Amino acid sequence: MEKLTRTLDVVGALVGLILAAPVLLLSMALIKLTSRGPIFFCQIRVGEGGRLFRMYKLRTMVVDAERQRRALLHRNEMSGPVFKIRRDPRITWLGQYLRRFSIDEVPQFWNVLIGDMSLVGPRPPLPREVKRYKRWQLQRLMVKPGLTCLWQISGRNRIGFEDWVRLDIRYIRTRSLWVDFKIILRTFKVVFIRPDGA
């Protein structure tokens, strides 16, 4: 299964990059024109087996977003070690649209191509989040992280962290090419038909 999954990842990532190229290039130009800072946002994430790697996104926040995070911790809307705010004041006006349609995630097709990620798998956590994991939650790190998984198609930020992890573990225990294919199809529905993540 691993060889077939890798083939699907490579083909899917190449097709994704080619199809998304016009939107990606336009988004890159708009980021450069509308806000100060780099076009891409690079962040260290935790991958399979605890291996660290650099994950790429289009920048959707102000340059000093990490510094501002400390002042916003009291507004965290997620349980557990994850920090998320639905109306995060650090997000630029363009970033709101890039996130709504998951355009900011397109550069992660490169992470898939070089083997750091897969098309389907648990979302890659931050090292500071993993340090706060309970023992059973470390099961999320048993497979490569992915662009999408059950969390993305099941409510996203409306799901508490422990339920999020349970969905990831359920995926890991039942994963197959058919399951991956169904998750990818449902992800398209969430992104393009109901981009609010419902």
Q: Which word captures the global form?
A: globular
From N to C, what is the helix and strand string? HEEHHHEHEHH
Q: Give the amount of beta strand, in percent.
A: 5-15%
Helical percent range?
40-55%
Number of helices: 7
Properties at a glance:
198 residues; two-stranded antiparallel ribbon; 7 helices; globular
Summarize the structure.
The protein has helices spanning 2-34, 65-72, 93-100, 108-113, 127-130, 161-174, 177-193; strands at 40-46, 52-58, 118-120, 146-148. The chain is mainly alpha-helical.
Question: Could you describe the 3D structure shown?
Answer:
This protein is 45% helix and 10% strand. It is mainly α. The strands form 2 sheets. It has a two-stranded antiparallel ribbon. The longest helix has 33 residues. It starts with a helix and ends in a 5-residue tail after the last helix. The model has no long low-confidence stretch (mean pLDDT 92).
